[in-house]
């Protein structure tokens, strides 16, 4: 049992591209002010944050200011951007800008809900497995390993294909419940190292209940790591949702960036040269996810002084 | 490290080549003839094994890979199985409303319940054997098997006999002239000497891999995404009717998605696209070399009617006044102009296709017809006792309960999905709460069979020789536990069904007699509104003229046949589209 | 060694069992009836014919026996390689369709994965701690890795195929050809392969380059690197050590990314109508062909399991630490 884990442990804490956060450094001893100082100085973090926040504001406030319906036929079909229609119109004369703003909103919604849910499940499983050990760990670890290997998107496709009505919420729910395994595994291995620390032992000896040790002693000590995990799960959920929407298994009502891509392709936007219909949604997704990733590197550098640029 | 990486590239390259080759080679046997022409990089434009000037590229008929060549499977055989390979006794010209003898030389009613058919002489199967009366008898007798789609024919057909090798006699229990006329040009005749002894399972589910037909083309090859037919020598019509098909090869491209077809069309990789291509109007009007039957709206001939079917067993759809109000509340103009970009025509209030104009009673339509009229819809509702009692802008049932209706179309049918969103919006303006829903297709099918729906859209009846098929669709009785193809709304009207049966028993030539009955039926239809006609779906067809010219068109002396290879349309004149084609060069 | 692989195999076996069971369960608990859809397409009105056809297909698809028996039959058929008949391409067996599609998918996936992994690692390692390169590679890498596969595919299809006309837009080979070993055919195959391959390669490349760059920086900051440098070792030597250590997590990363990569290949195939597994999925969804959809799902799971196992084996071979430990355990 422990053998396999020792083999994979150093591996997973490595930064294997977008799916994995880089190895966390223990940050227990650092003062908050210090972190903030470096955080504000970090160009990657600040830049990424600005982009994400700007898009978030667009998605939240945009539809309130620009009140056109994303689905109604408002203008002349196939108008290029400029003039009355800032981002042009679709084949049916729908307002691309309105679609984009609503799409951004649901992108953030799916990311936050799906990523959040995955983070909660992943952390719960990871903490319990790592801290309790024994049979609990064995079972949870087995479950995690099984789910880790099953290609999530294939499962999502199967489930979504059978659903009659699909909403953004349901989509986020499914994404959340299927994308937690790697987070659980990473959290578990972090917990394993922390669980053997003196202060945890001390707490345990003085009879503090498990959930309290986890929430009071273990989680705060890896909070930066947890936050970075959440960010990656967020980005992953956004991409997964976009993929589902693009295949045609997206929300049956409402608007999303993936759905815009799907519609644009179905209605021959490429062949007809309506680039303003399929370029912005992809750009939106890329900007959100890319900015999140860059932010994550920035955070990593802030929490891990050795990585700072010299 | 460096060596290892080089090895990796080699490995990668090798897998790619090997995979690509087995991928292709595994599906179709390699051709013996050496291909000619230059490398074929940009799509289908270059010359390959099928020289461009001898090949007709088509698309828009086949939605799955060619999987069988069984003419009995009229719903999923490979494009051209019926029409190019197997043929029918007659053709039916939808424009002129005439039957053209095809494999038959002539046919006539020789008694009250007896029809005698003379076969054309000199027709041979592709294996060299002559077509004989026994083949026709065998084909029709296949319908005695319960799972064969034309089994219902035997409800009124008593027997089929070969009088001599060139004569077939049909004896009927009941002379349903209209229905039988439809069978005469719909049934593909199969060779008894090849098919004899096949079990019911083989007849229904058999692949029929080496089709032996009488038609101008023979099987060449197929792959997941294409079906290739090759012209065969000795097609009977060349001698008998002086008709010849010019393309040596027909490559029918499986319809993965419509945008791919549009891309191929723009690159001149397609000669005939029977896809529904939204936005095609822009390209027809622009300088892209793409033509449609009409150069102006609606661009296409009409192929079938899309109907709004209310479930008449549910409240409030059981009330004709409510159904009429609903009919008046539908903003058809937005659907035609915005959703379809004028590619479709709004339907006549009778729902009969333009080709059946002679069966429409104009006086009935002008007095009882309907159009989009919000005020009228509101008035009809108010007069019938549907009022808005809680002030939400939507009317309630007569007993005060809320009206919440679901209008269903299959998920993924994008133009219909857009259309019912429009219907929902305009119905709500008139005060009727209609919500669009998009169940998956099989779910919708099972719901509509068992009558578990409020409202839905359906267009399954195509243009044909007789409006009887439409009235059969509207009024057929009795209502069964499962309604699979007709009268989904479960509307019961004995008088209408009697009239429909009378229509069936009217001779095909008796247009006046038919019109008299259809006029009665139209009165009932518009009075009761069991089904609401919406628009006419087009006979989607886009053509280019780089390789082939003389396509059907409304203009000048161009041929007037349906420009399509859609299944069951080749015998509606699609074959003439092929015989009229001319190479664009030389 | 045996214990280690034994355990891995057990996990894979359990995974497969779970996948098959999920696969079997889902359609039986969902609304709608595929058989009814099949019969409806035949457009038969006569109730007797409908009943006969219903019974015929129910029997054909094995839906006319008790549920537990269906489950056992499902396994039995599966072990015989029988995934049922496709509705979309009736009556072609699902396994036939999949076998025909696999080569196309593998032809995209294998070169794209291997080449992007190799090139990404090289580039990432080279760029790390080289100011100018780092500042260019890093942003490009982040943009690429954040790009949804289908969007990059759409951009390539639009710019290089539709607007510029350099490459074909769709399908695997020209419609004017039938498969053979001729140069034209191979050329056509290659021309149609370039764009889908490129879109997969680019997105993955970004991910690997960034991953490697970050790992190298970790390694260069590790105590052993500083120690080596302090001892006067050349920078190149230290970098080589760092690279070797960083490759290991990248191998594990590959295993973890497989699911996402496969998903990327699926949508890329859809964009280019490339006749692989992804294209089958789209058609299965559009025509409600659940037999096909489930066959494809099982196949993907199986493929990912096999790939994982191969990666495990490679990892064990490459990593000196596990080698030693495994030998120790075996003794």
UniProtKB/TrEMBL annotation, chain A:
Cited SUPFAM superfamilies: MetI-like
Predominant location category: membrane
Annotated region (Disordered), positions in chain: 1-27
Presence of the UniProt keyword Plastid in the record: no
Composition bias type Low complexity, residue spans: 10-27
GO CC term, one of those recorded: plasma membrane
Source domain of life: Bacteria
Keyword Nucleus: no
Keyword annotations: Cell membrane, Membrane, Transmembrane, Transmembrane helix, Transport
Cell compartment(s), UniProt: Cell membrane
GO molecular function: dipeptide transmembrane transporter activity
Topology in the lipid bilayer: Multi-pass membrane protein
InterPro entries: BP-dependent_transpt_permease (IPR050366), MetI-like (IPR000515), MetI-like_sf (IPR035906)
One Pfam family matching this protein: BPD_transp_1
Domain ABC transmembrane type-1: start-end pairs: 104-296
Transmembrane residue ranges: 45-65, 85-101, 108-131, 143-163, 225-249, 274-299
Protein family per UniProt: Belongs to the binding-protein-dependent transport system permease family.
PANTHER family listed in its UniProt record: D,D-DIPEPTIDE TRANSPORT SYSTEM PERMEASE PROTEIN DDPC-RELATED, OLIGOPEPTIDE TRANSPORT SYSTEM PERMEASE PROTEIN APPC
UniProt protein name: Peptide/nickel transport system permease protein
Native source species: Thermocatellispora tengchongensis
TrEMBL record, chain B:
Keywords: Signal
UniProt xrefs under Gene3D superfamilies: Dipeptide-binding Protein, Domain 1, Dipeptide-binding Protein, Domain 3, Periplasmic binding protein-like II
Recorded GO CC terms: ATP-binding cassette (ABC) transporter complex; periplasmic space
Signal peptide: 1-19
Boundaries of every Solute-binding protein family domain copy: 98-474
Start and end residues of each stretch annotated as Disordered: 24-45
SUPFAM superfamilies: Periplasmic binding protein-like II
Molecular function as annotated in GO: peptide transmembrane transporter activity
Bias type Low complexity, positions: 28-45
Record-linked InterPro entries: Peptide/Ni-bd, SBP_5, SBP_5_dom
Single GO biological process annotation from the record: peptide transport
Protein name: Peptide/nickel transport system substrate-binding protein
Lineage: Bacteria, Bacillati, Actinomycetota, Actinomycetes, Streptosporangiales
Automatic annotation (TrEMBL), chain C:
Main location per the UniProt record: membrane
GO cellular component: plasma membrane
InterPro entries xref list: MetI-like, MetI-like_sf
Domain ABC transmembrane type-1 residues, every copy: 102-311
Location within or outside the cell: Cell membrane; Membrane
Swiss-Prot/TrEMBL keywords: Membrane, Transmembrane, Transmembrane helix, Transport
Lipid metabolism in keyword set: no
Membrane-spanning ranges: 9-26, 101-119, 140-169, 189-210, 254-277, 297-318
GO biological process, alphabetically ordered: transmembrane transport
Claim: Transmembrane is one of the keywords in the record: yes
PANTHER family: OLIGOPEPTIDE TRANSPORT SYSTEM PERMEASE PROTEIN (PTHR43376)
Descriptive protein name: Peptide/nickel transport system permease protein
């Amino acid at each position: 049992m422990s053998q396999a884990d020792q083999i994979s442990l150093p591996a997973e804490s490595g930064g294997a591209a977008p799916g994995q956060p880089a190895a966390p450094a223990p940050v227990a001893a650092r003062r908050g002010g210090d972190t903030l100082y470096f955080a504000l100085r970090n160009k990657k973090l600040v830049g990424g944050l600005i982009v994400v926040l700007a898009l978030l504001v667009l998605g939240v406030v945009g539809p309130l200011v620009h009140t056109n319906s994303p689905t109604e036929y408002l203008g002349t079909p196939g108008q290029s951007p400029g003039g009355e229609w800032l981002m042009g119109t679709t084949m049916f004369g729908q307002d691309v800008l309105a679609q984009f703003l609503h799409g951004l909103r649901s992108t953030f919604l799916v990311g936050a809900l799906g990523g959040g849910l995955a983070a909660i499940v992943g952390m719960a499983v990871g903490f319990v497995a790592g801290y309790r050990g024994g049979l609990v760990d064995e079972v949870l670890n087995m479950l995690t390993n099984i789910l880790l290997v099953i290609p999530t998107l294939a499962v999502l496709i199967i489930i979504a294909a059978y659903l009659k009505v699909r909403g953004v919420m349901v989509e986020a729910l499914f994404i959340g419940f299927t994308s937690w395994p790697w987070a659980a595994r990473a959290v578990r291995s972090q917990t394993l190292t922390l669980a053997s620390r003196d202060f945890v032992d001390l707490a345990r000896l003085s009879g503090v209940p498990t959930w309290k040790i986890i929430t009071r002693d273990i989680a705060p000590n890896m909070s930066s790591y947890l936050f970075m995990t959440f960010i990656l799960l967020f980005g992953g959920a956004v991409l997964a949702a976009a993929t589902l929407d693009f295949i045609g298994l997206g929300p049956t009502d409402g608007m999303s960036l993936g759905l815009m891509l799907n519609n644009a392709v179905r209605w021959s936007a490429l062949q007809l040269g309506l680039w303003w219909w399929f370029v912005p949604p992809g750009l939106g997704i890329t900007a959100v996810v890319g900015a999140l990733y860059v932010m994550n590197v920035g955070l990593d550098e802030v929490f891990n002084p050795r990585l700072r640029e010299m | 490290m460096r060596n290892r990486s080089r090895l990796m590239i080699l490995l990668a390259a090798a897998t790619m080549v090997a995979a690509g080759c087995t991928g292709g080679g595994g599906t179709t046997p390699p051709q013996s003839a050496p291909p000619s022409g230059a490398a074929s990089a940009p799509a289908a434009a270059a010359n390959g094994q099928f020289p461009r000037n001898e090949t007709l590229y088509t698309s828009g008929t086949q939605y799955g890979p060619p999987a069988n060549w069984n003419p009995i499977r009229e719903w999923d055989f490979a494009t051209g199985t019926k029409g190019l390979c197997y043929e029918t006794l007659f053709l039916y010209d939808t424009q002129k409303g005439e039957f053209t003898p095809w494999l038959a030389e002539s046919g006539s009613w020789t008694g009250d319940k007896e029809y005698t058919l003379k076969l054309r002489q000199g027709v041979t199967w592709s294996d060299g054997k002559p077509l004989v009366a026994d083949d026709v008898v065998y084909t029709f007798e296949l319908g005695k098997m319960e799972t064969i789609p034309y089994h219902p024919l035997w409800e009124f057909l008593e027997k089929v006999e070969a009088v001599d090798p060139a004569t077939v006699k049909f004896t009927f229990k009941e002379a349903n002239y209209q229905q039988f006329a439809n069978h005469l040009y719909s049934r593909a005749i199969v060779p008894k000497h090849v098919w004899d002894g096949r079990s019911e399972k083989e007849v229904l589910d058999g692949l029929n891999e080496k089709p032996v037909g009488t038609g101008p083309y023979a099987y060449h090859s197929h792959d997941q995404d294409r079906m290739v037919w090759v012209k065969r020598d000795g097609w009977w019509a060349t001698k008998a009717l002086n008709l010849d098909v010019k393309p040596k090869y027909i490559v029918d491209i499986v319809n993965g998605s419509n945008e791919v077809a549009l891309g191929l069309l723009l690159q001149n990789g397609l000669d005939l696209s029977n896809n529904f291509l939204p936005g095609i109007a822009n390209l027809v009007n622009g300088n892209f070399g793409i033509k449609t039957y009409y150069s102006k709206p609606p661009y296409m001939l009409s192929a079938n009617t899309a109907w709004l079917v209310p479930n008449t067993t549910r409240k409030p759809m059981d009330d004709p006044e409510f159904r009429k109000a609903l009919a008046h509340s539908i903003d058809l103009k937005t659907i035609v102009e915005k959703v379809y970009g004028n590619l479709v025509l709004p339907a006549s209030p009778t729902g009969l296709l333009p080709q059946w104009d002679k069966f429409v009673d104009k006086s009935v339509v002008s007095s009882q017809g309907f159009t989009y009229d919000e005020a009228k819809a509101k008035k009809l509702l108010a007069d019938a006792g549907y009022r808005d009692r809680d002030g939400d802008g939507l009317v309630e049932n007569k007993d005060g309960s809320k009206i919440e209706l679901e209008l269903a179309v299959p998920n993924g049918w994008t133009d219909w999905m857009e259309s019912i969103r429009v219907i929902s919006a305009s119905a709500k303006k008139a005060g009727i709460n209609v919500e669009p829903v998009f169940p998956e297709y099989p779910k919708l099918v099972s719901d509509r069979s068992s009558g578990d729906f409020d409202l839905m859209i359906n267009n399954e009846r195509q243009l044909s020789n007789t409006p009887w098929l439409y009235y059969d669709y509207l009024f057929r009785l009795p209502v069964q536990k499962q309604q699979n193809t007709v009268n989904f709304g479960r509307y019961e009207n004995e008088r209408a069904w009697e009239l429909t049966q009378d229509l069936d028993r009217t001779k095909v030539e008796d247009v006046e007699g038919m019109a008299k009955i259809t006029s009665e039926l139209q009165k009932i239809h518009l009075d009761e509104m069991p089904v609401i006609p919406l628009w006419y779906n087009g006979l989607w067809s886009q053509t280019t003229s780089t390789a082939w010219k003389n396509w059907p068109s409304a203009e000048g002396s161009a041929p007037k046949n349906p420009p399509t290879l859609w299944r069951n349309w080749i015998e509606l004149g699609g074959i003439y589209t092929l015989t009229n084609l001319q190479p664009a060069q030389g | 060694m045996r214990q280690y692989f034994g355990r891995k195999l057990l996990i894979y076996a359990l995974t497969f069992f779970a996948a098959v069971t999920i696969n079997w369960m889902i359609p039986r608990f969902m609304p709608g009836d595929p058989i009814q859809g099949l019969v409806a397409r035949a457009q038969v009105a006569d109730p007797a014919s409908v009943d006969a056809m219903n019974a015929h297909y129910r029997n054909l698809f094995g839906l006319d026996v008790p549920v537990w028996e269906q489950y056992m039959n499902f396994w039995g058929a599966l072990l015989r390689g029988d995934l049922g008949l496709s509705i979309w391409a009736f009556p072609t067996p699902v396994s036939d369709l999949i076998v025909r599609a696999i080569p196309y998918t593998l032809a995209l996936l294998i070169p794209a994965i291997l080449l992007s992994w190799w090139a990404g690692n090289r580039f990432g390692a080279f760029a790390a701690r080289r100011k100018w390169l780092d500042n260019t590679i890093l942003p490009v890498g982040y943009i690429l890795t954040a790009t949804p596969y289908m969007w990059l595919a759409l951009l390539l299809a639009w710019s290089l195929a539709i607007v510029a006309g350099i490459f074909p837009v769709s399908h695997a080979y020209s419609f004017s050809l039938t498969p053979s070993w001729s140069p034209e055919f191979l050329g056509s195959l290659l021309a149609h392969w370039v764009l889908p391959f490129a879109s997969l390669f680019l997105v993955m490349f970004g991910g690997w380059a960034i991953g490697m760059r970050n790992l190298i920086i970790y390694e260069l900051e590790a105590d052993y690197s500083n120690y080596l440098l302090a001892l006067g070792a050349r920078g190149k030597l230290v970098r080589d050590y760092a690279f070797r250590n960083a490759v290991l997590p990248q191998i594990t990363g590959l295993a973890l990314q497989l699911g996402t990569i496969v998903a990327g290949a699926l949508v890329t195939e859809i964009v280019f109508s490339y006749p692989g597994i992804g294209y089958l999925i789209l058609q299965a969804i559009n025509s409600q062909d659940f037999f096909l959809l489930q066959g494809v799902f099982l196949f993907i799971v199986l493929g990912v399991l096999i790939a994982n196992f191969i990666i495990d084996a490679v990892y064990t071979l490459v990593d000196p630490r596990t080698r030693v430990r495994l030998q120790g355990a075996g003794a």
